[in-house]
């Protein structure tokens, strides 16, 4: 199973585990949206996104880029961009429990969460689209800018630097790093407790007001920036 959902009475937990790289693809998005809808319906005080041991997510499924129909490729990429923005503006506190590698779209998915806690290890975290010859769409830029301090954004986005967990925390991709899984779970629990006293509906309203303008601008540009010629440098 790629996505599972649990609700413990106050906190919703989404767990990603496809046994591989937890890549973002259409069936992944369907399950993720269903989980977010369940969390909203359950009136969760926090929504925690977990990876599997050693892997948070390697980002978008690159096999989709090899489809023969460029319009289908564009549709998939546009939906993926909307998903990152929807997670970024989800109407409840969100936590990324980064259990391992988080690169490209996986790092952006983590940065779309309000709080990001990683685990120590020989893991790679970063946004390497520039190094892959992919022009980062505005939706990725606004999410990264909301997480990464201005003096580090050049390293993160333009140079596509890949960090270990401690380096990722220094760069702003993560907020905290724990030594092991037990520490990660304890830290997630403490953050969820912190959210318990915050009126969730008010939190959601303020979050969307805070991010609405950037979200709408990114959505307006989504179709033109992530079109069928997305992979052609001349179109950037």
How would you describe what is shown here?
It is built from eight helices and nine strands. By secondary structure, it is an alpha/beta fold. It has a single domain, classed as 2-enoyl-CoA Hydratase, Chain A, domain 1 (Alpha-Beta Complex). The strands form two sheets. A six-stranded mixed beta sheet has the order 1-2-3-5-7-9, sandwiched between helices. Strands 4-6-8 form a three-stranded parallel beta sheet. Helix 1 packs parallel to helix 2, helix 2 runs antiparallel to helix 8 and helix 4 runs antiparallel to helix 8. The protein is globular, with a radius of gyration of 17 Å. The C terminus is likely disordered.
User: How would you spell out the order of helices and strands?
Assistant: EEHEEHEEHEEHHHEHH
Strand content range: 15-25%
| CATH superfamily membership | 2-enoyl-CoA Hydratase, Chain A, domain 1
Helical residues, percent:
40-55%
Spans where pLDDT lies below 50 across 5 or more residues: 228-236
Based on the structure given, which CATH architecture is correct? Answer: Alpha-Beta Complex
**Morphology:** globular
Sheet of most strands: 6 strands, mixed
* Strand order in the sheet with the most strands: 1-2-3-5-7-9
By CATH reckoning, the class would read: Alpha Beta
Radius of gyration: 17 Å
Could you say what the CATH topology is called? 2-enoyl-CoA Hydratase, Chain A, domain 1
Strand segment tally? 9
Domains, number: 1
Helix count from the secondary structure assignment? 8
Structural class label: alpha/beta
Termini separation comes to 37 Å
């Amino acid at each position: 199973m790629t996505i599972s959902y649990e609700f413990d009475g106050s906190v919703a937990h989404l767990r990603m585990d496809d046994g591989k790289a937890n890549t973002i693809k259409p069936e992944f998005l369907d399950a993720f949206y269903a989980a977010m809808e369940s969390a909203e319906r359950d009136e969760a005080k926090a929504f925690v996104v977990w990876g599997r041991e050693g892997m948070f997510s390697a980002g978008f499924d690159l096999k989709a880029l090899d489809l023969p129909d460029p319009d289908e490729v564009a549709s998939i990429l546009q939906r993926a961009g909307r998903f990152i923005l929807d997670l970024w503006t989800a109407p409840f506190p969100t936590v990324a429990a980064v259990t391992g590698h988080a690169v490209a779209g996986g790092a952006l998915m983590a940065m779309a969460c309000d709080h990001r806690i990683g685990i120590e290890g020989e893991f790679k975290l970063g946004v390497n689209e520039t190094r892959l010859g992919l022009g980062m769409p505005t939706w990725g830029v606004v999410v990264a800018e909301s997480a990464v301090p201005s003096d580090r954004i050049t390293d993160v986005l333009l140079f596509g630097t890949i960090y270990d967990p401690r380096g990722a925390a220094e760069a702003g991709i993560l907020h905290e790093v724990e030594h092991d899984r037990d520490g990660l779970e304890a830290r997630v629990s403490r953050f969820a407790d912190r959210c318990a006293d915050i009126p969730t509906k008010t939190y959601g309203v303020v979050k969307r007001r805070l991010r609405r303008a950037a979200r709408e601008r990114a959505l307006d540009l989504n179709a033109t920036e992530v079109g069928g010629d997305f992979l052609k440098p001349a179109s950037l």
